Amino acid sequence: MTEPWVAALRAALGDRVHTQAAELAAVARDASHVIGRPEALIYPETSEHVAAAVRIAREHGVPIVARGGGTSLTGGTVPTRGGLVIAFNRMAAVLDLDIEERTALVQAGHPNAALDRLARGHGLRYAPDPSSRAASVIGGNIATNAGGIHCLGHGVTGDHVLALEVVFGDGTIAWLEDTDASDLRALVTGSEGTLAIVTCALVRLLPLPERLAVVVAGFERLEQAGACAERMVLEAPGLVACEFIDEGMLRALDHMAPGVLPTDVEAALLIEVEAIEEGIDRALGVVVQCVEESGGSAREARSDAEIEIAWNARRSAYGALGRMHADSYTHDFATPRDRLVSSLRAAADIAERHGLVLSSVAHLGDGNLHPRLHYDAREAGAFERALEASEELLVMVLENGGTLTGEHGIGLEKLHALGRQYGEPELDAMRRVKAVLDPAGILNPGKALPEQGTDSRRGMYADVA
Q1: Closest to 95 measured CA to CA, from 87, 104, 108
Q2: 188 and 110 in one domain?
Q3: Which three-class secondary structure state does DSSP give residue 406?
Q4: 421, part of any domain
Q5: What is the pLDDT of residues 124-166, one digit of tens each?
Q6: pLDDT average, residue stretch 2-17
Q7: 225 neighbors 344 (Cβ within 8 angstroms)
Q8: 405 DSSP 8-state letter
Q9: 117 to each of 98, 121, 232, 311, how far by Cα in Å?
Q10: Residues near 258 by Cβ (< 8 Å), separated by ≥ 6?
Q11: Over the range 113-129, which residues count as b (16 or more CB within 10 Å of their CB) and which as e?
Q12: 267 in a structural domain
């Protein structure tokens, strides 16, 4: 028997509504360890389609999950409470590209990397570049305020969003600008689809640099890499990226890109600088000096081909690990930059105590670290050990003055650990904001913010472990 709300959706949206088991299975999970149970799926083609679906869902009390590229690592787009999935595959157009104003108006389902490629054809670029950029889309990047490799120099997604078209929980469509007296655009950015559904975004494009160069640096000790990064942030002109790769990840990448990155070292840095033609040599000279005086070795990459090879190796990090380890659990934390090295050391100790293998990358320049725990899920208790180690990682990061997430979001993963970072007054204030923008509580319920009356300090994946 067809549910009344599904019948209402079909009456309003026709064949854009899907309920077949195979179709629902395709949107039941994301890149996390959680599987949901959607009851219906729609592929809207306009913002009005989204608004119509939201109004119907609100009338019937049906939960909604908005889905982009499905790359969330925290269960943020998993429909754990059933209901409706709104997938943005068919809302992926670039509606306007204004070269003079350096802006692009794009629908939420447009892939990050595709926008950057389009902009580069006009001498511009879209700066936010999470490692998932080939598959992740603008709407999802906005939902988590994604960072990426170049956020040290160019900021995170929210720094490039000028305006948003959204659908609120009552089905109204609104245009939110950064110049509004109450900047709801900033509030919605990073809210993980719990306050509004982003349908379209006006984003800032940047001019391409006159010159750029990359330095690949290797260090025998992790602490040397940390000291080098600290110094470069203060001294290196035009520094836009400083990516850390640990020994385990370097071994994996050597299979995919032999000779590109250093081997037999405890840490490597990929460092990028931008400058005008006359300034590139000075910028490179400062970087190389910082590397060598910190005890490392440096190799310059100046040609476009060399630079592309180096960055593609970094972006391939997690894919490369698939041939070395059966299963893994990727984390996302942030710490003060001067405590990142000690946090990575502590993460390695935690993994070893739980019989796990650790590999890590980090956006060293801005304190965002991604430790990855490796295990074999076929072994009894292996995943449970990974969760126990994850708890210790979380506690360690908070004790080091860090935060629960840098760019992946809270989702389901850290939903009931949020009380470790915030007190009840802060959590209650967040709940009151959601109640105003989503009064029926249908937008991605049970994600990002623990509900009133629940224990917000239970820990990682408390509801699904």
Answers
A1: 104
A2: yes
A3: coil
A4: no
A5: 999 999 989 999 999 999 999 999 999 999 999 999 999 999 9
A6: 96
A7: no
A8: -
A9: 15, 7, 29, 15
A10: none
A11: bbbbebbeeeebbbbbb
A12: yes
Question: Tens digit of pLDDT for each residue in 157-216?
Answer: 999 999 999 999 999 999 999 998 889 999 999 999 999 999 999 999 999 999 999 999
Q: Minimal CA–CA distance to 46: which of 5, 7, 13, 11?
A: 13
Which helix or strand (DSSP H or E) is residue 371 part of? strand 368-375
pTM, 2 dp: 0.94
Strand, helix or coil for residue 384: helix
Domain span including residue 99: 94-207
Signed CA dihedral, 150, 175, 121, 116: sign only: positive
Both 203 and 215 in one domain: the answer is: no
φ/ψ of residue 196, rounded to 5: -165, 160
Task: State the DSSP string of 178-238.
Answer: TTSSS-HHHHHTTSTTSS-EEEEEEEE-EEPPSEEEEEEEEESSHHHHHHHHHHHHHH-TT
Clarify whether residues 70 and 107 are in a common domain: no
Last residue of a domain, one of 59, 87, 115: 87
Q: Residue type for 224, please?
A: Q
CB atoms < 10 A from the CB of 302, how many?
A: 14
Which SS3 state, helix, strand or coil, does residue 307 take?
helix
- State residue 1's pLDDT score: 62
Q: Is 357 inside a domain boundary? A: no
Instruction: Provide the domain count of the chain.
Output: 3
Find the CATH number of the domain harbouring 137.
3.30.465.10
- In order of 161, 225, 226, 261, 262, the CA distances from 232 in angstroms are 28, 11, 10, 20, 20
pLDDT tens, residue by residue, 337-373: 889 999 999 999 999 999 999 999 998 877 899 999 9
Class of residue 42 by CB neighbours under 10 A (exposed 0-12, middle 13-18, buried 19+): buried
Do residues 154 and 79 share a domain?
no
> Within this chain, do residues 220 and 296 fall inside the same structural domain, yes or no?
yes
In this structure, what CATH number is given to the domain that contains residue 238?
Answer: 3.30.70.2190
Question: Are both 169 and 220 inside the same structural domain?
Answer: no
Is residue 60 domain-shared with residue 107, that is, in the same domain?
no
Counting every residue written for the chain, the total comes to: 465
Please answer whether residues 99 and 122 qualify as being in contact, where contact means their C-beta atoms are separated by less than 8 angstroms. yes
Torsion of CA 279, 284, 286, 288, to 10 degrees: -170
Q: Which runs of consecutive H residues, i.e. helices, occur in 367-449?
A: 382-399, 424-437
- Statement to judge: residues 196 and 99 lie in one domain: yes
Q: Tell me whether residue 438 is in a domain.
A: no
State which of 318, 348, 379 marks the end of a domain. Answer: 318
